[in-house]
Amino acid sequence: MKPSVNAEAKRRAEAARSRSDAREPRKADSDSGSAASASAAAGGAKRLSVNPLKISQTIGGALALQGVYQAMPILHGAQGCAAFAKALMTRHFREPIALQTSALQEFNVIFGGEASLFEALDTIRAKHNPDVSAVLSTALTDVSGEDIRGELAAYRKKHELGGKLLACAMLPDFQGSLESGYARTVEALLDEVLTESNRPKKKLRGRVNLLPGAHLTPGDVMELKEIIASFGLEVIAIPDISTSLAGHLLTGHTPLSRGGVPLDLLKQASASEWTIAVGASMEGAARLLEDRADIPYRLFPGVTGLAATDEFFGFLQTIGSEPVSVKYRWQREFLLDAMLDAHFVFGGKTIALALEADHLHVLNSWFREMGASPELSVAAARPYPGGPLPAGTTVGDLGDLEEMAAAQGADLWLSNSHGEQSARRLGIPFLPCGFPVFDRFGAGLSLSVGYRGTTEFVNRTANRLLAGERRHPI
Fold first, then answer.
1. Is the CB of residue 274 less than 8 Å from the CB of residue 209?
2. How far apart, in whole angstroms, are the C-alpha atoms of residue 223 and residue 225?
3. What are phi and psi of 25, to 5 degrees?
4. Does 383 sit behind a cis peptide bond, omega within 30 degrees of 0 on the bond before it?
5. Where are the alpha helices (DSSP H) in 353-449?
6. Per-residue pLDDT for 206 more than 80?
7. Shortest CA distance to 331 belongs to which of 309, 362, 311?
8. Is residue 288 a contact partner of residue 194, using CB atoms and an 8 Å limit?
9. Listed range (43-47, 238-242, 321-325) with the worst mean pLDDT
10. How remote is the C-alpha of 162 from its chain's centroid?
């Protein structure tokens, strides 16, 4: 028997529709929601985003660069683009964010932004001397057709970089999402360091490259590093946001990223024996390491859940020099017990999900493992670099998920903080997940990978489901 939270959600939706019908009709061109409804009623494609879910690719690129030590992302576009990105990331991580802009004006777009970009690079290099400078394009420069890569090639000829890295990632925000922007930026960094002159003569035994996807928190990355290291392996995380965005109190101030993988270690990634990619979006970067440095890779869609974590540990046993630690054997027992304790709370429940593609795949599999039905799911964008979405998934916005949940009912809503109002309107318990989470503390340290992380996620999710049942008793 379905909990009455579904009935309550349907009752609220019907009441809202009744109130809307009772009011005087409005013209479709005067209200965005009416326009969307009119388009849907006419059988056409949705022409607008009512409650956006997608996060700009440039924010994904800036996020990846926070995981590189002494790095400076430079958004080549209007000043407001960088200000918005920095504010959103600061609210989520509650940490200083390294970010600069070329601050283009209207005449720069018309006559070309090369002079503004060179001026920004000169100023940043003179004042801050970053080890890594990365230029990220925006919709403004992509639509105008500016040849940023050609401009940077000319800049390299005129200036001696002194061993520093200058990279470029094309990230128009009218394409893709945070996930693809993050992955493309990692690929751009590797493309710069994987040169013929940097190709190693031999591999370093026991060294592993870890490519963590954009859906992983700093706490998740730290947990994965500890797990891999427990097998006697040396880990290079690219990028490593666990040492930059997890939270630390350093003396002094620097406008550059305060943690992450150092440039010299990034250059040594080509000498690793294996690459482990977590998240399908990171396969492009893993394949780049395979093609340029002959490093085999293993792709894991996620490391959340019993089956996924068992697979991860099984692979590490084949490449590591140490057996599975007793600590992790106990953690697996704790997870099994937590799943047994909470299974009656998950069984048969309908879950509403609105996330990036990789995150959606991970949680879809995990909820099914727990006996729940993640039937209502919306992805921010198509998977990068390609591939299928979970069955029944819509590429859309939070408004689409609200309509689906109102029509079918749901027992739990998982999305970023922008979805909480929709969940409240429908009376559905809400669990913040993804990016951004700006109204909760500890988003950067939340854990959902490995046996320990999955146990914490089981309990966190089960408690939210129980709270919903107490509000709407059967």
1. yes
2. 5
3. -60, 145
4. no
5. 357-369, 398-408, 420-426
6. yes
7. 309
8. yes
9. 43-47
10. 33
Domains plus CATH for the chain?
Answer: 57-195 (3.40.50.1980), 202-322 (3.40.50.1980), 328-471 (3.40.50.1980)
The answer to whether residue 112 scores a pLDDT higher than 90 is: no
Averaged pLDDT for residues 76-98: 87
Burial 126-154 (b: 16+ CB within 10 A, else e): eeeebbbbbbbbbbbbbeeebebeebbee
Helix residue ranges per DSSP H, 268-325:
283-293, 306-319
Q: What residues pair up with 169 in beta bridges, in sequence order?
A: 136
For residues 140, 141, 145 and 150, what is the CA-based torsion angle, rounded to 10 degrees? 180
Q: Measure the N-to-C terminal CA separation of the chain; round to a whole number of Å.
A: 9
Predicted model pTM: 0.88
Tokens representing 97 are 């964010």
> Residue 204: how many CB atoms within 10 A of its CB?
12
Q: Bigger pLDDT: 25 or 309?
A: 309
Instruction: Return the DSSP state at 303.
Output: -
Q: How far apart are CA 467 and CA 121, in angstroms?
A: 52
Length of the chain: 474
Specify burial of residue 1 (Cβ count, 10 A radius: 0-12, 13-18, 19+).
exposed
- Round to whole Å and give the CA distance between 72 and 64: 11
Q: What is the mean pLDDT of residues 146-175?
A: 91
> Which range has the worst mean pLDDT, 131-135, 201-205, 419-423?
201-205
Average pLDDT over residues 163-184: 94
For residue 57, the one-letter residue type is: Q
Whether 304 and 215 have beta carbons less than 8 Å apart is answered as no
